[in-house]
């Protein structure tokens, strides 16, 4: 079966302009395949590059080396060569992303924040509203909050709005960056159920979950990122004079 996503020999570094152009190498030679209906969980300690990988897949960060391809619709689409203007439609229709924190827009209610991905596709307003409310209710967000902008919501309330917004579009590929970090056990279970339902409809997911229990309940496979650390970050690495990187 053709995977929905293939990553080949991906590498990433950052140039720190505030540090005199210092080069920080984060990832090297990472390859993976992701299939429909599976949830692959990225593992590894803080700073290893988990969020960086998701941001490259979502087009927020450019890949340094390697290739990312999406097999969707008519043949493979190379994301590493995708022109900037093509990302909008791709994010609207194919790749969904639940970031760790909700991007709050003043005066836009929680309900509208959740409806927006469906409206962007031209969905009927009443239907989008009904689906948003169903998701908010499932995630136990009190109804009195639905008409309010989430700016003043608690961390867990904002996270639930973000999750509802991420899942409402039923994207074929979903990237999840610690979606349960601020949730209580009952709401973590709701998220686990949403992930299982997404798998059942054939969605592929790449996720980061610090919570061991959630990880065990959703992961079909684990991908530890330690082996793809750039030499400059690996614990046993020797100082690399060629890159001129600092070492602790
Ligand atoms: N825009 C950026 N500019 C410079 N360095 C960056 C940038 N984004 C990430 N990094 C660096 O890349 C490394 C990996 O960061 P990343 O956020 O991917 O880690 P992570 O595995 O998601 O960690 P955590 O579990 O703490 O969220 C870190 O050393 C980080 O400082
Ligand atoms: Mg992270």
TrEMBL record:
Q: Which Pfam families match?
A: ABC_tran (PF00005)
Which InterPro entries does the UniProt record give? AAA+_ATPase, ABC_transporter-like_ATP-bd, ABC_transporter-like_CS, CP_lyase_PhnL, P-loop_NTPase
Superkingdom per UniProt: Bacteria
Which key words tag this protein in UniProt?
ATP-binding, Lyase, Nucleotide-binding
Domain ABC transporter residues, every copy: 5-248
User: GO molecular function: any one?
Assistant: lyase activity
Family designation = Belongs to the ABC transporter superfamily.
Q: What is this protein called?
A: Phosphonate C-P lyase system protein PhnL
Q: Which gene encodes it?
A: phnL
């Amino acid at each position: 079966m053709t995977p929905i996503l293939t990553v080949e020999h991906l590498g990433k570094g950052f140039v720190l302009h505030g540090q005199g152009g210092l080069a920080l190498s984060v990832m090297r030679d990472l390859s993976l395949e992701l299939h429909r209906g599976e949830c692959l969980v990225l593992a590894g300690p803080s700073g290893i590059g988990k969020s960086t990988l998701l941001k490259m897949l979502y087009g927020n960060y450019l890949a340094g080396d390697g290739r990312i391809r999406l097999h969707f619709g008519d043949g493979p689409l190379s994301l590493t060569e995708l022109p900037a203007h093509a990302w909008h439609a791709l994010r609207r229709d194919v790749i969904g992303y639940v970031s760790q924190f909700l991007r709050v827009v003043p005066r836009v209610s929680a309900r509208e924040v959740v409806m927006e991905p469906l409206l962007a596709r031209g969905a009927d307003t009443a239907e989008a509203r009904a689906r948003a409310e169903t998701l908010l209710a499932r995630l136990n967000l009190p109804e009195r909050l639905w008409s309010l902008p989430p700016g003043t919501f608690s961390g867990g309330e904002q996270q639930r709005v973000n999750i509802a917004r991420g899942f409402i579009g039923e994207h074929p590929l979903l990237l999840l960056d610690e979606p349960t970090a601020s949730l209580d056990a009952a709401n973590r279970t709701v998220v686990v159920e949403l992930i299982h339902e997404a798998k059942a409809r054939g969605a592929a997911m790449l996720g980061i979950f610090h919570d061991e229990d959630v990880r065990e309940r959703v992961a079909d496979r684990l991908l530890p990122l330690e082996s793809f650390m750039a030499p400059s970050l690996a614990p046993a690495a020797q100082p690399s004079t060629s890159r001129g990187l600092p070492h602790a």
